[in-house]
């Protein structure tokens, strides 16, 4: 029955994209089918082929080890601060306690430093280029949009666009939307590691699910965006993938320094957003509860209640088991309207619990992406700085990209749920 729900979910997701398409006659169905087939193939390889599944488990454990290395740096800075330990006692931070701000900051800084080193030695560029060539061959998309979508699975939203900076000025609107959608559907490597470690703290093995989500998001975003805004212009990079982005760092020490500094900025931005959004949510819940009490003194109206109702059809159609549908819908709402960090925090600390393994798989993939309203503003500002002449196009495409990025994550989650 849940597999039938998943099939209904695929129809719903693709149907919504088709409904808002600006040129239904120009939709490239070969691209759509090949993109969905690529997503299905990735999911089958990870979830049904043992040695590949084991490899992803190994990668997941490696991501977990990064947190222990990051703690070594954080421990030097925060040593002497007493925190609650896993057994409930209080001891020095060095002993293994978890403080969200300390651990998250350290992990993001470490991963950004590693990425900067890989970037300096042109390793990251080669990885992105290789995967982009494969996706370009299968889906027949342009080189620019293939590169930016694949890059989004490794680096941040704006950093992915830096890799195609020479092409931004001449990209078609369809390519621009595809690139923006991919950045919103995927999640940066540093943040992915943080989410995996948040899950590990709660005894949840999220790492393989999140890696899979990031890989599936790239073709998924292209599928949805090319239905919503089919290509009708001639692309400058159609049929070719050429990445010429060279390191701006002087040496490896310079790369680590810049990477760490960039990671710190990202971490501080994450902490500021969490404080701001969670505080605003608390304020809104306070107001909503009082509004609810005007009608019924026993009715506690909250944002979670509203999200649970509005996103219920999506959660159900993805194949989430019945006992988890309402909470899954709540997390979908939190991710889209607040941000994915809040959704992951509530998932991992079990304030919005998901009880079944299938529900956990589906919701982990569905909320693993940057698609939220605040990210749209970051994209318009960040990409607009790289290509000021495209700022007007970026602003017009912003909400479309949010729609496409959200549906792309939902599509990946639905496919994974069907195969489980």
Structural overview:
InterPro entries: C_nuclsd_transpt, CNT_C_dom, CNT_N_dom, Gate_dom. Its main location: membrane. The chain has one domain. 73% of the residues lie in helices and 1% in strands. The chain has helices spanning 2-19, 29-48, 50-78, 100-120, 123-139, 143-151, 157-162, 165-168, 173-185, 189-201, 207-228, 252-295, 303-310, 312-317, 325-337, 340-348, 357-366, 373-386, 391-419; strands at residues 82-84, 90-92. Strands 1-2 form a two-stranded antiparallel ribbon. A hairpin with a 5-residue loop joins strand 1 and strand 2 (90-92). The protein is globular and about 65 Å long. The model has no long low-confidence stretch (mean pLDDT 85).
Which geometry do the CA atoms define? globular
Overall pLDDT metric: 85
> Which strand order do you get reading across the main beta sheet?
1-2
SS-based structural class? mainly alpha
Task: List strands and helices in order, with pairings.
Layout: H1 2-19, H2 29-48, H3 50-78, E1 82-84, E2 90-92, H4 100-120, H5 123-139, H6 143-151, H7 157-162, H8 165-168, H9 173-185, H10 189-201, H11 207-228, H12 252-295, H13 303-310, H14 312-317, H15 325-337, H16 340-348, H17 357-366, H18 373-386, H19 391-419
Domain Concentrative nucleoside transporter C-terminal: 210-417
Membrane topology: Multi-pass membrane protein
Domain Nucleoside transporter/FeoB GTPase Gate: 102-200
Features of the shown structure:
420 residues; mainly alpha; two-stranded antiparallel ribbon; globular; transmembrane helix; cell membrane; CNT_N_dom; Gate_dom; symporter activity
């Amino acid at each position: 029955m849940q597999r039938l729900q998943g099939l209904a979910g695929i129809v719903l997701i693709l149907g919504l994209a088709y409904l808002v398409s600006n040129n239904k006659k120009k939709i490239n169905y070969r691209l759509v089918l090949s993109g969905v087939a690529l997503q299905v193939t990735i999911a089958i390889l990870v979830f049904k082929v043992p040695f590949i599944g084991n490899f992803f488990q190994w990668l997941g454990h490696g991501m977990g080890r990064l947190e222990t290395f990051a703690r070594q740096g954080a421990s030097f800075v925060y040593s002497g601060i007493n925190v609650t330990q896993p057994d409930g006692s209080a001891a020095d931070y060095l002993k293994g306690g978890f403080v969200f701000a300390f651990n998250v900051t350290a992990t993001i800084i470490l991963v950004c430093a590693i990425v900067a080193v890989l970037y300096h030695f042109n390793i990251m560029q080669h990885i992105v280029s290789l995967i982009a060539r494969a996706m370009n061959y299968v889906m027949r998309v342009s080189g620019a949009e293939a590169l930016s979508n694949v890059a989004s699975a490794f680096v941040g939203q704006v950093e992915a666009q830096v890799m195609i900076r020479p092409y931004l000025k001449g990209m078609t609107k369809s390519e621009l939307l595809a690139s923006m959608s991919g950045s919103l559907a995927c999640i940066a490597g540093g943040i992915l590691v943080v989410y995996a470690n948040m899950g590990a703290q709660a005894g949840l093995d999220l790492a393989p699910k999140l890696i899979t989500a990031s890989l599936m998001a790239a073709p998924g975003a292209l599928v949805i965006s090319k239905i919503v805004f089919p290509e009708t212009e001639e692309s400058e990079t159609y049929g070719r993938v050429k990445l010429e982005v060279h390191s701006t760092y002087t040496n490896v020490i310079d790369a680590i320094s810049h990477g760490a500094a960039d990671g710190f900025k990202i971490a501080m931005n994450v902490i500021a957003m969490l404080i701001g959004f969670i505080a605003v949510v608390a304020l809104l819940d306070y107001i909503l509860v009082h509004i609810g009490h005007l009608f019924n003194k026993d009715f506690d109206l909250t944002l979670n209640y509203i999200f649970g109702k509005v996103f219920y059809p999506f959660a159900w159609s993805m194949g989430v088991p019945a006992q988890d549908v309402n909470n899954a819908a709540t997390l979908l709402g939190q991710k889209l309207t607040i941000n994915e960090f809040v959704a992951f925090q509530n998932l991992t600390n079990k304030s919005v619990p998901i009880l079944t393994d299938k529900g956990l798989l589906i919701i982990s993939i569905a909320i693993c992406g940057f698609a939220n309203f605040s990210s749209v503003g970051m994209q318009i500002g960040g990409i607009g700085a790289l290509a000021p002449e495209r700022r007007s196009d970026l602003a017009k495409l912003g909400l479309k990209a949010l729609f496409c990025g959200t549906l792309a994550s939902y599509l990946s989650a639905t496919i994974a749920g069907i195969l489980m």
